[in-house]
Amino acid sequence: MRSAATTPRFIDGHAVELLEGGGAYFPALVAAFEAAVHEIHLQAYLFVDDPAGRLVADALLRAAVRGVAVHVLIDGFGGRTMPRPLRRRLREAGIELLFFRPDVSLCDFRRSRLRRLHHKIAVVDGAVGFVGGINVIDDMHTPGHTPPRWDYAVQVRGPLTLDMLRVARQAWETVARTYLRRRWPAWRPLPAPDPSADRSVAPAGTIRAAFVIRDTLRHRRDIEAAYLQAIALADREILIACAYFLPGIEFRRALADAARRGVQVTVLLQARVEYVLMHHASRALYRQLLDAGVRIFEYHQSFMHAKVAVVDGEWATVGSSNIDPLSLLLAREANVFVRDAAFAGALRASLQRAMATGARPVEATGYRRGLPARIASWISYGIVRVLLGWAGYGARRDYL
Q: CATH top-level class for 11-182+200-389?
């Protein structure tokens, strides 16, 4: 049985700044850490000991020395290579460092091993929050790819920052329960909501925004549903940039229906191979999408890690969720959805520049692939279906 989805709750009163790449993200993140007074939460899939990682670590250490309560939560699989000297340095300074599902083994065949912490959230004092696809890793660290890595995040001020703080605390508490000796943190009380204003934090701007998560409890389909709602309402343009793209049947039908009613639907995907299985499986869907009128571009210039979209120049999203089974069915994810023409226009312009300088179209007319490539695609697609069944999603026949 399919779980119900919660409709995104858009709230006004926000300042949302688009941050393109680590060059914009890390200085903003560090500046927020330097201004922290009470509490910092940083949660990510990766925390690498490289120039960006050391920049962030040093800012966290300085905050801890000032007496700020600093909590860092890293995925157990993504963070397995985090050097022990770095872990020790953070903990000795009083920083609370935990790992989400840290017991990772090649001999572990439990389905739960696929449920990872993939969201990238940072919240400072409940007053400023960061959400996006950027891990704590230097843009120039792209083995096998031409740097810099291409990705996005947003900095948010306004009422939603308390929602971000609640989610960060809840994730921390969930993991802390598995550490039997871990001292339970004494959280600072959150501001009481003002029923007349439907907010607990004073407005910081004029942007309407929603913070949407994907977890294995009450919010299993919320991010996917938010995308589907926007696609269904589109009447001019849908532009999606996604590093790992393997949408389910409902999502593919929504894109095809939009293209048939005259919406220009463009999907910008990663051309370079990172994960062989996902790379070939996604290409099994190209012909179906092209035949429906969906335009496909492949980004060749560098390593693409973006997970963003713009609809009708007014609706936009930036986050950690790919449009694939791992993100939409298994991992913890977080996206910010925005209804604002200026913000959506800025993101659209950035995507258009990237397409113009670093992407090539997949031509619908005469699209042909050699027999070995077709075989690789359909074998990969079949393997993904088997893995979904093994992970407990065999009943979701509407996905693949």
A: alpha beta
Q: In angstroms, rounded to a whole number, what is the distance separating the alpha carbons of residues 166 and 186?
A: 14
Nearest 5°: phi and psi at 195? -55, -30
Question: What is the rounded distance in angstroms from the CA atom of residue 16 to the CA atom of residue 157?
Answer: 7
Give the residue extent of every domain in the chain.
11-182+200-389
> What ranges make up the beta strands (E) of the chain?
11-20, 39-44, 69-75, 96-100, 120-124, 128-132, 152-157, 207-214, 237-242, 264-270, 295-299, 307-311, 315-319, 333-339, 359-362
The model's pTM is 0.92
Kindly state the tokens that stand for 190.
């959150």
Work out the angle between the directed axes of helices 22-34 and 51-65 (0-180°, nearest 10).
10
Active-site residue numbers? 118, 120, 125, 305, 307, 312
What's the pLDDT score for residue 202? Answer: 83
pLDDT of residue 3 exceeding 90, the answer is: no
Q: How many CB atoms lie within 10 A of CB 398?
A: 11
